[in-house]
């Protein structure tokens, strides 16, 4: 059967929030499925059968579409998925997330096949921290330990002393309590960690998540007036003005767990709305409202990269075992050490 093709397309989706514009027209490669491609009538059953035939495990992030989450063997945030990848005993890992997550799985599993349904499922944080520029940044701060958020490339991980996620970032920074620390690549998470760990001296790479940065503090304040009994749950990648209005600040998993256990019946959630699926499974009676973005005319807080993965692309990835994730061995070996240290300390 014909393989998926790519062509350059201009598509409107979220742009990095460096000004007032929320939506920008960006050119990027979109995997196109051939018109001649035939899919089974029961795609879900076919995917499950391919998983069995390939001896594969499906790992999916909470920000994936609900259909993919329902097919997954493990659904989690970056830390949970890294732990799951470390314990894999299958031949194939199908990773429905973004590129750096699949890279992490490959780093932990060099002898297993790791596929990502769409190679263009990237990350603004990873893209905003190029390896060469980060190497020069480190060189300007000799003697500093490097703690890198897992939302970075394998090359950046290979330059790091320790990797962290939003779940454990404070603990990872505290591991180097007597050393100067470079924190990359998210400046908003860095600011939150600096406060929690009492480390105002963090040396920060000035990157940001284009999804979380687009929540509007002004519109959130207005929404709170309309929903006075609602709790606000926010991810630490958000801007400070948003976090200042939050009743709870936590990782993706932390937000889900708090949403389930809190007595509040209405929740305003400042993170990607893929988390709603897991929350509604446990507490369907609660009202979930996504915190407003800077532009009400678009779904500006839905990650465009995460949503590039589809059940159709997943089916093809399992059938053809591509696109396959590869990491140069020298890079993989260096990147493995800080990842394993994080998992040991977590």
Portion in helices: 25-40%
- At CATH level 2, the architecture of the largest domain is 3-Layer(aba) Sandwich
Q: Quick check: average pLDDT?
A: 90
Write the element-wise H/E pattern from the N-terminal end onward. EEHEHEHEHEHHEHEHEHEHEHEHEHEHH
Strand residue content: 15-25%
Q: Please tell me how large the radius of gyration is.
A: 20 Å
Return the structural class: alpha/beta
Distance between the termini: 45 Å
The CATH topology of the largest domain is given as Rossmann fold
The residue ranges in which pLDDT falls below 50 over 5 or more consecutive positions are 1-29
Q: What would you call the shape? A: globular
Q: What is the CATH class name of the largest domain?
A: Alpha Beta
If helices are DSSP runs of H or I spanning 4 or more residues, what is the number of helices?
15
Fourth CATH level, the homologous superfamily of the largest domain: NadA-like
Count structural domains: 3
The total strand number stands at 14
Describe this structure in words.
This protein has 346 residues and is an alpha/beta fold. The protein has three domains: 40-121 and 304-327, 3-Layer(aba) Sandwich (Rossmann fold), CATH 3.40.50; 125-210 and 330-345, 3-Layer(aba) Sandwich (Rossmann fold); 212-290, Rossmann fold (3-Layer(aba) Sandwich). The chain contains 15 helices and 14 strands. The chain has helices at residues 43-54, 66-71, 78-86, 99-108, 124-127, 131-139, 154-158, 169-174, 187-196, 217-226, 240-243, 252-261, 275-282, 311-320, 329-345; strands spanning 5-14, 23-32, 56-61, 74-76, 92-96, 113-115, 145-149, 162-164, 181-184, 203-204, 231-234, 248-249, 266-270, 287-290. The strands form four sheets. The chain has a four-stranded parallel beta sheet with strand order 4-3-5-6, with helices on both faces. The protein has a four-stranded parallel beta sheet with strand order 8-7-9-10. Helix 11 (240-243) links the parallel strand 11 (231-234) and strand 12 (248-249).
